């Protein structure tokens, strides 16, 4: 399954068609999700897009077209990484209106949040919104148990197998940073922190047979 950021980035530039016609790509998002009677791309579609990206990434979804519905999904976090979800209020804090997108970073003065999302300027784009409008950040979990790599992984390794390991560690709350497929110092430390929860494991920062078995057990227990 592709990475959420890669899937969303590939859609940048998809935009509404003014007038009675609708962009067939946006209508396809609705069709893939099983959303009936969605015939106009002028309807709010930021949550539609977010649900579609989550579907294609095999991640949990809100299954609703309201942006604030994403506050009920995922793991609440205070230190987001690129690929996490950010929810904003719109027009009024005390209303149902909002916006949802994929967190990509903070401005240098820490007053704005950059996010990748749909219906931003009537298209899929990356834009900045005031940090004062953030309602929360969420980390989405896999809807099915992760198929962990069968080979050993250690610092210096790269590739999609490392992404899977990073996603698994983040799902359990161990901070390895962005799931970038690079087994660096931060991923190594997160793995050591995880190993330290089992006194029978060697704290070596290597994803080996014993660590793999224990990680599978913990992931399974968290989904039951």
Automatic annotation (TrEMBL):
Entries under InterPro entries matching the protein: CHAP_dom, CHP02594, Papain-like_cys_pep_sf, Peptidoglycan-bd-like, PGBD-like_sf, PGBDSf
What superkingdom does the record give? Bacteria
Pfam families documented for this protein: CHAP, PG_binding_1
Where would I find the Peptidoglycan binding-like domain in this sequence? 161-213
List each copy of the Peptidase C51 domain by range: 40-119
List, alphabetically, the NCBIfam families matched: TIGR02594 family protein (TIGR02594)
What's this protein's name?
TIGR02594 family protein
Q: What is the lineage of its organism?
A: Bacteria, Pseudomonadati, Bacteroidota, Cytophagia, Cytophagales
């Amino acid at each position: 399954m592709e990475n959420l950021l890669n899937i969303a980035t590939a859609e940048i530039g998809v935009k509404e068609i003014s007038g009675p016609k609708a962009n067939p790509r946006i209508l396809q998002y609705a069709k893939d999700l099983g959303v009936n009677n969605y015939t106009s791309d002028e309807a709010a579609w930021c949550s539609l897009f977010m649900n579609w990206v989550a579907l294609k990434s095999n991640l949990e979804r809100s299954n609703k077209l309201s942006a604030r519905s994403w506050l009920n999904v995922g793991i609440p976090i205070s230190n987001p990484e690129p690929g996490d979800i950010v929810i904003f209020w719109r027009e009024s804090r005390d209303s149902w209106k909002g916006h949802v997108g994929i967190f990509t970073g903070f401005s240098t003065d820490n007053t704005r949040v950059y996010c990748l999302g749909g219906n931003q300027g009537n298209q899929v784009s990356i834009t900045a919104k005031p940090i004062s409008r953030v309602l929360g950040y969420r980390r989405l979990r896999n809807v099915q148990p992760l198929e962990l790599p069968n080979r050993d992984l250690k610092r210096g390794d790269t590739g999609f197998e490392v992404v899977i390991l990073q996603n698994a560690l983040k799902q359990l709350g161990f901070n390895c940073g962005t799931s970038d497929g690079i087994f660096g110092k931060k991923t190594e430390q997160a793995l050591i922190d995880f190993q330290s929860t089992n006194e029978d494991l060697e704290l070596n920062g290597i994803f080996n047979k014993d660590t793999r078995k224990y990680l599978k057990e913990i992931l399974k227990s968290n989904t039951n």
